[in-house]
């Protein structure tokens, strides 16, 4: 393992700046020590939003955000998906976007002149989810239109 | 010159300036942007975490 626990990356981490309990060094340590249950059960692993500032700052070129991604994949395969991520997948199936495109967003766009929010082909998205098994993996029911 | 264009969702919802400036730059460079019908979000940072 390349990490020597310097913590340089955290100074520029947008999550670390606002969430006091977010300490990715804990993730690295827990993974190294094999503390699977502790790591899988909390929010810690799911707070990273992939700004990738850690990749730019790390003096040892540890790709922390990538490690977090990979750890999440392992966790999901073992049947645990954080409820916030389940909501994101549900939103994607329902709206075709990971956020709901609200009236506010529409109004904002009208004001600034780009064309209206494109209507996503949600039927196609749901079909992809079904064929790739994402719906089962996430434990969600896909509504038929 | 024509390019297919999909704005995605984060730019759409949170960073409208990116889209506006891109459309204007493309126009200035003589690039025609064709909005892809039915395109939505790729869900990348979230979905690649649970691949």
Characterization of the model:
The complex is a heterodimer of chains A (145) and B (51). Chain A has 145 residues and is mainly alpha-helical. Chain A contains nine helices and no strands. In chain A, helix 6 packs across helix 8 (122-132). Chain B is an alpha+beta fold. In chain B, strands 1-2 form a two-stranded parallel sheet. The longest helix of chain B has 13 residues, at 16-28. Chain B starts with a strand and ends with a helix. Chains A and B meet through helix 5, helix 6, helix 7, helix 8 and helix 9 of A and helix 2 and helix 3 of B.
- The averaged pLDDT of chain A comes out at 85
Structural class of chain B: alpha+beta
What is the subunit organization of this protein?
heterodimer
Shape of chain A: globular
Largest interface: A-B, 36 and 24 residues
Global shape of chain B = elongated
Which class best fits the helix and strand makeup of chain A?
A: mainly alpha
> Helicity of chain A, in percent?
40-55%
- Cα-atom radius of gyration of chain A: 19 Å
The percentage helix of chain B is: 40-55%
Low-confidence stretches of chain B: none
Number of strands of chain B: 2
Give the distance, in angstroms, between the N- and C-terminal Cα atoms of chain B: 36 Å
Which keywords apply here?
heterodimer, A: 145 residues, 9 helices, 0% strand, B: 51 residues, alpha+beta, two-stranded parallel sheet, 2 strands, 43% helix
Q: Which helices and strands appear, and what pairs or packs with what?
A:
The complex is a heterodimer of chains A (145) and B (51).
Chain A: H1 14-18, H2 24-33, H3 36-41, H4 53-57, H5 64-77, H6 83-95, H7 103-112, H8 122-132, H9 134-138
Helix pairs in contact in A: 6-8
Chain B: E1 2-5, H1 10-14, H2 16-28, E2 32-35, H3 44-47
Parallel strand pairs in B: 1-2
């Amino acid at each position: 393992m390349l990490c020597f626990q310097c913590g340089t990356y955290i100074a520029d981490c947008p999550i670390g700046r606002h969430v006091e309990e977010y300490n990715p060094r804990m993730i690295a340590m827990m993974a190294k020590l094999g503390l699977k249950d502790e790591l899988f059960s909390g929010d810690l692993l799911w707070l990273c939003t992939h700004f990738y500032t850690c990749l730019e700052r790390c003096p040892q070129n540890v790709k922390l955000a990538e490690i977090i991604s990979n750890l999440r994949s392992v966790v999901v395969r073992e049947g645990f998906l954080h409820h916030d991520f389940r909501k994101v997948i549900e939103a994607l199936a329902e709206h075709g976007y990971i956020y709901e495109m609200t009236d506010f967003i529409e109004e904002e766009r009208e004001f600034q002149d780009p064309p209206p929010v494109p209507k996503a082909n949600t039927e196609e998205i749901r079909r992809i989810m079904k064929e790739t098994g994402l719906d089962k993996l996430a434990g969600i029911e896909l509504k038929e239109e | 010159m024509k390019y297919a264009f999909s704005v995605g969702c984060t730019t759409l919802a949170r960073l409208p300036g990116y889209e506006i400036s891109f459309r204007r730059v493309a126009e200035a460079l003589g690039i025609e942007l064709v909005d892809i019908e039915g395109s939505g979000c790729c869900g990348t940072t979230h979905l690649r975490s649970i691949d």
